[in-house]
Design a protein that fits this description.
By secondary structure, the protein is an alpha/beta fold. About 35% of the residues lie in helices and about 15% in strands. It is globular.
C-alpha cells in the first residue's frame, strides 16, 4: 500500500487507516464480536493498513483492550493512535484535561494496548475548566518521557462559531494555533467525506500549510456512502445513527442521489478493470485520498471483508472526469447536528 507522512516528525502510515471504534462502541452492539474484530485488524494489517485509531472512552476501555490483543504479536506492523480527555459516565460524557489525569490515563492506555509507546496521542476534547495549553503541556511531557511519539488533536463534533460568516472549524484552528505554541501538532482528526466537506474550507488548508497530517474520520458517512444501507430498515437503539437526522428514512431516501453518483463512477472503473469490482465505498475513499498527500482516511469497521475492501481503495486513481462528477453531486440534506 502507498505510504503517507503524518506531521513534522515524518511518521509514515499506510494511505488508508482503520477506525476501531465500531468494534466496541456506538454501532450495533449485538453485532460486535471479539473474534471477528481480531480478524478485521489482522486483515487490515495484511493489506498494508498500519494506522489503527482507537480511544480510551470506546467501550469504555474495551476497544483499547481489543487492539492490544490484536497486536500482541504484530505490534511492529502497526501505528497506534489513541485518545485522551473524555470520561464516560452512566448517562453522560465529560471532558477531563487535568495534567495529572492525562498522565495517569496514558499509563493505563499503554497497559491496555500492551505496548511501550503510543505512536499518536490525541486530545479527544478540550476541557472547558482547564486551559488547553496545560493539557497539551502534560501530553508533551509524555513525548519527552518516551511514552508517546507524537501529538494530535481530535476535532470531531466541532461547532461553527457564533459570529457572522463563521465557518465550522474556525474555533478548531484557533485552538490548534494555541497548542502549536506549546508543542508541535502532528495530526488533526476531523470528519471529511463526499457528503461532509466542511473541512475543505479552512481546516485542511491549515494542516497542509504547516505539514500537519489530516486523519479523515467518517470518510464513508457512517456507512451511508457504501450503498449498503436501506432507507427505513432502522438501526438498533444503541447505534448512534438511530439518533442522527441524516439517517431518518426520509433523509436517507433524499440523499440516495449521492450514492447513485458514486455507483456510476464505480461502474466505469469496474468495466475497465480486469479482475476486481470497484465499489462505491472505494470511490468515496479514493475521493478523500485525492484531497492531498497529507490526508489519511480512517474508515471504521468491525468486519474483515469491509476492511479488505477499504484497503483496496488505496490503489484506485480517480480521473478528472470522476472528480468532476463527484464535485457535482448535491450536498447532503439533513443537519448533522
Amino acid at each position: 500500500m502507498e505510504r503517507r507522512t503524518i506531521g513534522a516528525a515524518a511518521l509514515e502510515v499506510g494511505a488508508v487507516g482503520l477506525g476501531c471504534m465500531p468494534m466496541s462502541w456506538a454501532y450495533s452492539g449485538s453485532r460486535q464480536r471479539g473474534e471477528e474484530s481480531l480478524r478485521t485488524v489482522h486483515t487490515a494489517l495484511d493489506r498494508g493498513v498500519t494506522l489503527l485509531d482507537t480511544a480510551d472512552m470506546y467501550g469504555p476501555f474495551k476497544n483499547e483492550l481489543l487492539v492490544g490483543r490484536a497486536l500482541k504479536d504484530r505490534r511492529s506492523e502497526a501505528f497506534v493512535s489513541t485518545k485522551v480527555g473524555r470520561l464516560v459516565g452512566e448517562q453522560h460524557i465529560v471532558a477531563n484535561g487535568r495534567p495529572g489525569y492525562v498522565k495517569r490515563a496514558c499509563d493505563a492506555s499503554l497497559r491496555r494496548l500492551q505496548t511501550d509507546v503510543i505512536d499518536l496521542y490525541q486530545l479527544h476534547r478540550e476541557d472547558p475548566e482547564v486551559p488547553v495549553e496545560e493539557t497539551w503541556g502534560a501530553m508533551a511531557e509524555l513525548v519527552t518521557a518516551g511514552k508517546v511519539r507524537a501529538l494530535g488533536l481530535c476535532a470531531m463534533g466541532a461547532r461553527p462559531g457564533r459570529g457572522p460568516g463563521a465557518r465550522l472549524h474556525d474555533e478548531t484552528i484557533r485552538r490548534l494555533e494555541r497548542v502549536q505554541q506549546v508543542f508541535p501538532v502532528s495530526a488533526v482528526e476531523a470528519e471529511l467525506s463526499v457528503w461532509s466537506r466542511q473541512a475543505l474550507e479552512s481546516l485542511l488548508p491549515w494542516c497542509e500549510a504547516r505539514g500537519v497530517g489530516f486523519l479523515a474520520a467518517m470518510p464513508l458517512g457512517s456507512g451511508f456512502l457504501t450503498g449498503t444501507l436501506t432507507p427505513g430498515e432502522g438501526f438498533e437503539r444503541d447505534d448512534l445513527r438511530a439518533r442522527h437526522p441524516r439517517f431518518t428514512a426520509e433523509m436517507m431516501a433524499a440523499n440516495q442521489s449521492i450514492v447513485v453518483g458514486l455507483r456510476r463512477v464505480a461502474a466505469r472503473h469496474s468495466a475497465a478493470a480486469e479482475e476486481a469490482r470497484v465499489t462505491p465505498a472505494q470511490v468515496a475513499l479514493a475521493w478523500v485520498l485525492s484531497r492531498g498527500r497529507h490526508v489519511v482516511p480512517v474508515p471504521g469497521t468491525k468486519r474483515a471483508c469491509w476492511a479488505a475492501e477499504n484497503a483496496g481503495a488505496a490503489g484506485l486513481r480517480l480521473t478528472a472526469e470522476d472528480l468532476a462528477e463527484v464535485a457535482g453531486l448535491p450536498p447532503a440534506l439533513g443537519s448533522w447536528d
